[in-house]
Amino acid sequence: MYICICNALTDKQIAAALASGADRPHDVYAACGCRAQCGGCTGTILSMVRAGCDSGGK
């Protein structure tokens, strides 16, 4: 599913960035070779970051 429409980032791409060590939205964008544009997805990405950390991700 698309999470970031501006950069066409999917949940799978974001999950891969998190698995590679991204631990904040800025790091996720950088790992995907882009940066935040409108910011509408930042909250969702932050939730994914926190969920990964809460479940022992890093």
From TrEMBL:
Bilayer-crossing residues are none
Under Pfam families, the record lists: Fer2_BFD
Query: What name has this protein been given in UniProt?
Result: (2Fe-2S)-binding protein
Query: Record keywords: Endoplasmic reticulum included?
Result: no
Q: Which UniProt keywords apply?
A: 2Fe-2S, Iron, Iron-sulfur, Metal-binding
Q: Which superkingdom heads the taxonomic lineage of this protein's source? A: Bacteria
What positions does the domain BFD-like [2Fe-2S]-binding occupy?
A: 2-48
